[in-house]
Write a structure and sequence with these properties.
15 strands; 46% helix; single chain; Rossmann fold; 16 helices; 3 domains; 467 residues; four-stranded antiparallel sheet; four-stranded parallel sheet; Four Helix Bundle (Hemerythrin (Met), subunit A); 16% strand; alpha/beta
């Protein structure tokens, strides 16, 4: 497999630290608000990476953190008078629910900042001890970037230009504009924890370094983990600062490879609350089913900025429909094993830095050739079984195609509509048992008039809404 390393700015062969084992850490949400499409894009991109590595035979240990103590969370608590624990619990649950709806597998580890305070304090103390950090008069502990000769070796974005400096809050107490807070001294209306260097709370960057060191890191390697991922907006300063902290505290590099996904744009503009065009996942899910959103967000290569618009989403759905129409054609067939040529081509595409365009083209070709073969050989049972296995492989690797084919085509119908249809089907089945075929046919015709197609199978009657 080859991946694009954000530091080297080119594709490189992926060689894990330990044979057949991969440890991945991806920066998760700050839980002060609901997840937006940027969160979804990142989660889906690294879910695809995890699934691909597992399909290639690697044992994957995947971590995504939850930032549940932060300036934004405290501000929201002060504004709303709602306890911080209540805010973070609610939005953590919302995030996990939204990601599950998008088919994102649960992380193996999901550490929270508030539950990792001992580990965070330990790393800050180590940095103070070895002279890579200092404490100001108010008690805030700062990372001294001048003590790290490799600072900015990741992003190469450190300059003395005003724009760069302004991004890294130039606060009182710093020795250098690039220095950043490891531990913020307790202030009025703040959330505070005890530590050997005074009451306070962690800065944003330290939590990831501390969590990786505590829960995921190799201790006998020059690298803590194999892959560190996140959105492109985190590369600097967040990931730069994480890497510096780990180098100075442990004398090891944080990650062997760095991967970043592109932004999400809406109608060509970078998604931003300041622009007023932030698009929450929960709102998108009210209109579009999760798998349809997942497929759409997967369809653009993870490193490319994604331009979200409804016209493209509907075109994407039609592409997914074709896969489900093939699956419906094979309804009730049990899988055997996937075609070796198909699965090899799919994994070869994804092994090229998750080349989704080629991967989807492989799937499109499989759907087309399968339909052509079934047209010519409708009773080829072995072929049918292998195609069903192909579809199962697609679900395993891409997280799409796993729904019941008939249920997929009911998406968008209300529960009340479904209940009414199910009740009519029940009456039809009862009529057939009484051998009242006239009534059974009348019910079928009634359903057909409102666009409902029935199919009687050995496992019962299935139905879908015709397009």
């Amino acid at each position: 497999m080859v991946i694009f390393d954000s530091v080297k700015k080119r594709k490189v062969p992926f060689e894990p630290i330990n044979d057949n084992e991969v440890r991945i850490y991806v920066c998760g949400p700050t839980v002060y608000d609901d997840a937006h499409l940027g969160h979804a894009r990142s989660a889906i991109a690294f879910d695809l990476l995890k699934r691909t590595l597992k399909a290639l035979g690697y044992r994957v240990r995947f971590a995504r953190n939850i930032t549940d103590i932060d300036d934004k969370i405290i501000k929201k608590s002060l504004e709303t008078k709602e306890p911080i624990g209540s805010i973070t619990k609610r939005y953590t649950e919302h995030y996990l629910k939204d990601m599950a709806a998008l088919g994102v597998e649960k992380a193996d580890l999901a550490p929270k900042a508030t539950e990792s305070m001992e580990e965070i304090v330990k790393m800050v103390a180590k940095l103070l001890e070895n002279g890579c950090a200092y404490q100001d008069e108010e008690g805030t502990v700062w990372f001294d970037t001048s003590k790290d000769r490799e600072y900015c070796s990741l992003s190469h974005r450190c300059t003395d230009e005003e724009e760069s400096i302004s991004r890294i809050e130039h606060e009182k107490g710093k020795r250098h504009p690039r220095d950043f807070a490891l531990w913020k001294a307790c202030k009025k209306d703040d959330v505070c924890y005890d530590s050997p260097f005074g009451r306070g709370r962690p800065g944003w960057h330290i939590e990831c370094s501390a969590m990786i060191e505590a829960y995921l890191a190799y201790k006998d390697s020059q690298y803590a983990i194999d892959i560190h991922g996140g959105g492109a907006d985190l590369f600097f300063p967040h990931h730069e600062n994480e890497a510096a902290q780990t180098r100075c505290a442990t004398h090891r590099r944080l990650a062997k490879y760095w991967m970043h996904n592109g932004f999400v744009n809406i109608d060509g503009e970078k998604m931003s609350k300041s622009l007023g065009n932030s698009f929450y996942v929960k709102d998108a899910l009210k209109v579009y089913e999760g798998e349809i959103l997942r497929f759409y967000l997967l369809s653009t290569h993870y490193r490319i900025d994604f331009n979200f618009n409804e016209e493209d989403l509907l075109s994407s759905k039609k592409r997914l429909d074709k896969l489900y129409r093939l699956k419906k054609r094979l309804y009730g067939v049990k899988p055997s094993v996937p075609e070796e040529k198909f699965k090899r081509a799919l994994l070869e595409a994804l092994s090229d830095d998750l080349n989704i365009s080629v991967a989807l083209a492989v799937i499109d070709e499989m759907v087309t050739t399968a339909n052509e073969h079934l047209d010519a050989n409708p009773k080829d049972r072995n072929f049918k079984k292998s195609v069903v296995a192909n579809i199962e492989s697609i679900f395993e690797i891409l997280g799409i195609g796993g729904k019941d084919a008939y249920e997929y085509f009911r998406i968008g119908m209300s529960e009340e509509q479904i209940e009414q249809i199910e009740e009519l089907i029940k009456k039809r089945n009862e009529a057939k048992k009484r051998k009242d075929f006239k009534e059974a046919d009348a019910i079928r015709d009634e359903l057909a008039r409102v666009g409902i197609q029935l199919m009687d199978t050995p496992d019962g009657t299935v139905w879908e809404k015709a397009e």
